[in-house]
Design a protein that fits this description.
mainly alpha, 65% helix
Length: 234
C-alpha cells in the first residue's frame, strides 16, 4: 500500500495537469460530432472558432506544457544516467519544437491574416489568455509536486524548471501579443543543457563512450563453422 499511494498521487497530479487543454479538446470533439450529424455547418463561426481554439491549445501544449518534462528527462540524461532514453526522447523533443510548434504557428499566422481569423481571435482573446495562464499555473503546481519532500536532481531545482517553463511560455505569449500583461519574463534560457539536447547534431556520443540504445546490427556471430544442428528431438 505504501508503494501504491505515491503512484496514485502521481497519476492524479498528471491528470490534473492535463485537464487544462483537455477541456478544449472536449469542446472540439463535441463540435466535430455536431458537424458530422449535420447540426451545424462547417462554415459556421461556431465550428471555425472551435477549430481555431484547438490549434491554439495544441500550440500552447507543445511549446510550453511539454517542455518541463523534457527538462527533467534531459537533466537526468545529462548526468550520465539513462542516456539511451534521453537520446530517444531527444528526437521527440526536436520534432515537437521544429515541426509541430512551427506548423501551429504558421497555421495561426495564416488565419490571422484573414477576416474570419481576425474576428475569431478578437472574440477568443480572453479565452486564449486564460488558457495560457491556466497552463502556467498547472505547470507551477506540477513542478512543485516533482520537487516536494526534498526530491533533488543534479543541475535542476523547482525554481530553475519553472523559470524554464516561463521562458518557453514566452513564445505563445509574444505570438498572441500578451507580453505587456506579464512581468519579468525570462530573457535567456535558464537551462543551458537544453540548448544542447534540443540540437541533435551537438550530441554525438560513440558506442565506445556510452551505452547506446540503438538497434544493434550483427549482434549475433555465426561461429559454429561446418557443424550441423539437429532439431529432431526438440
Amino acid at each position: 500500500i505504501d508503494e501504491i499511494i505515491p503512484m496514485i498521487q502521481a497519476m492524479n497530479e498528471a491528470v490534473i495537469r492535463a485537464e487544462v487543454v483537455s477541456e478544449i479538446f472536449k469542446e472540439t470533439y463535441i463540435i466535430g460530432h455536431k458537424m458530422a450529424l449535420g447540426e451545424i455547418s462547417r462554415e459556421s463561426p461556431e465550428a471555425y472558432e472551435a477549430i481555431f481554439m484547438f490549434v491554439v491549445a495544441m500550440y500552447c501544449l507543445e511549446s510550453t506544457q511539454f517542455m518541463p518534462s523534457f527538462g527533467v528527462t534531459f537533466a537526468i540524461a545529462d548526468s550520465g544516467i539513462f542516456v539511451p532514453v534521453g537520446k530517444s526522447v531527444q528526437k521527440i523533443a526536436q520534432d515537437e519544437i521544429e515541426i509541430h510548434v512551427q506548423a501551429h504557428k504558421i497555421t495561426l499566422d495564416y488565419e490571422l491574416k484573414t477576416e474570419r481569423g481576425i474576428m475569431a481571435f478578437n472574440k477568443l482573446k480572453p479565452k486564449i489568455k486564460k488558457l495560457i495562464d491556466d497552463i502556467v499555473a498547472s505547470e507551477k503546481s506540477w513542478v512543485d509536486y516533482l520537487f516536494q519532500d526534498g526530491r533533488e536532481l543534479i543541475g535542476l531545482d523547482a525554481n530553475l524548471l519553472f523559470n524554464y517553463t516561463m521562458f518557453c511560455a514566452k513564445d505563445p505569449i509574444t505570438f498572441f501579443g500578451f507580453q505587456d500583461q506579464y512581468d519579468n519574463l525570462p530573457e535567456k534560457n535558464p537551462l543551458g543543457y537544453m540548448r544542447e539536447w534540443l540540437n541533435i547534431d551537438k550530441i554525438q556520443g560513440s558506442p565506445q563512450e556510452e551505452n547506446t540504445g540503438a538497434y544493434l546490427l550483427g549482434a549475433i556471430s555465426n561461429d559454429i563453422g561446418s557443424k550441423k544442428l539437429v532439431f529432431d528431438d526438440l
